[in-house]
Amino acid sequence: MVSAVPPGIRVLPCGPCGDRNVTYRIYILIFTFFCYTCYHMSRKPISVVKSVLHRNCSKVTDDTGSPHFGNDTTWCDWQPFDGSDYSQLFGTLDLVYLFAYAISMFFSGHIAERMNLRYFLSLGMIMTGLLTAAFGMGYFWNIHNLGFYIAIQVVGGMFQSTGWPAVVACMGNWYGKGKRGLIMGIWNSHTSVGNILGSLIAGGFVTANWGWSFVIPGIIISVLGIFVFLFLVPDPKDVGCTLPDHQGTGVTSDNPAVNKAQEGGSESEEEYNSSANLIRPVATPDKAISFFAALRIPGVVEFSLCLFFAKLVSYTFLFWLPKYISSKSDIDAEKAADLSTFFDVGGIFGGIAAGLISDYTGARASTCVLQLMLAAPVMYIYNLYGSIDLAHSIGLSLLCGFMVNGPYALITTAVSADLGTHKVLQGNSRALATVTAIIDGTGSIGAAIGPLLAGIIETTGWNNVFYMLIGSDVLSMLFLVRLFVKEILEKVRK
Question: Does the pLDDT value for residue 10 go beyond 60?
Fold first, then answer.
C-alpha cells in the first residue's frame, strides 16, 4: 500500500511533539495560500493584454519609434481582435473560459472528494500552467486564429476548476470552526495577491511582448504544482496529527429538530433524522456525500445564489477594470494594469474585515448583507469620480474593492467551510469539496455572464455597465434577506 505521507514531507522539520499540530497548520495555511495565489495570477493576464490586442493605434509608434502614417487605424492590433467586434470577441473569450470553469467546478468537487487531494491539486496546477503558457505562445507562433484562443480558454477553464475545491478542502481539514472567519479571511487574500502579481507581471511585458505575460505565470504555477505533489499534506491523519473541532455551523436551520440537535437537545438520533429530513448519517465518517444531499444542507442554496451575483460583479472588475481605466483616463495599458491592483488591495482588507466581523457577531449572512448594501452606492460614486485624478482613482478603487470582494471572500471561504462541516452531516468530513464546488460553481456561472454582459453593454457606454453591476449587487443581497432576518431575530431572542 502506498504511504499517504508525501515523499518530500520527510525532509521538513515538524517541531517538538507538542507543537506538531500548530506547525503543520501554519505550513498548510501558507502552502495553500501560495497555491491559489498562482491560480489567480495565471488567470489575470487576459484582462491586461486586452488593452494591446485592440488599442488606439494613433498613439502607437512603429518599430522605428516613429508615428505610423496612413489610413490603417488598426495596424498595431492583433488579429482577429482588430475589427469593430473586438469587445464581443473579448467577451467570448471570457465566456467560454468561465463557463468551462463553472461547469467543471461541479464535477471537480465530486472528484476531489473521491481521490487523493495531493494528486488532484498537483495535476490541476501543472496543466493550468501549461495551458496558460500556451495562450502566450500564440504571440511567438504568430497565431491569429480565434479558435486557437477559444480552445485554450475552454480547456484552461476546466483545469482551473481544480484549485478552489482542493485548497478549501485542505484548509477545512486542518482548521476548525474557531476564528475560521478571520483565519480564512486573511488566507483568502491570496485571490487579491494573485490578481496583483498577475497584473504586475503581465503589465511588465504587455507593451513590448504580451506573450511573456502568459508564459511567466504559467511556468510559476506549473513548478509549484510539482512541489504540491512532493510536499502537500491534505489531511491531518496522514501525518498523525489531531483533527480540528468542527462544532458549530454559523447557519441556523429552519427545522426545529435540527436546531434542537445542534444545541445539544435530547431528541434521539432516529427522531432527528426523520424530522430534519436532510442528510442521514453515513455508514462511515469518510464516505463522500452526494451532490443532492449537499444541496439539502441549510444555507447552501441561498449562499450559492447570492454568490452567483456577487461573483458576477467581482469578475467583471477582474476582467474589465484595466480596460475601463485605460478608456476613461487615456493612460497606457501598463499603467492601467498597475492602477487596477488597488481594487484588489481593497479586496484583501474587505475579506479580512468580513471574516473578523462575522466571527465576532456569529452572523455570516448579516455581514455579507451589510457590505453588499454599501457596495452599490460605492460603485456608483466610483464611476462618477474615479477618473478625475490619480488620488480619486486610487481611493475609490480601494473602497470599491473592499465592499465588492468582502462578501465574495467570506462566502467562498468561511461560509463554505461552515456548511461543509455542518452538524446535519453527523461528523462526516467528506463534504467540504462538494459543498465548496456547488457554491463556487454557481458563483462561477455568474462570473461567466458578467464579463460577457460587460463586453456587450460597453459599446453603449460604461455608465450602463455600472448600472448592470449595481443591479446585480442588489439581487445578490436579496437572496440573503431570509437568513439575515433569521440571524437578527436570533440575536434579539438571545
Answer: yes
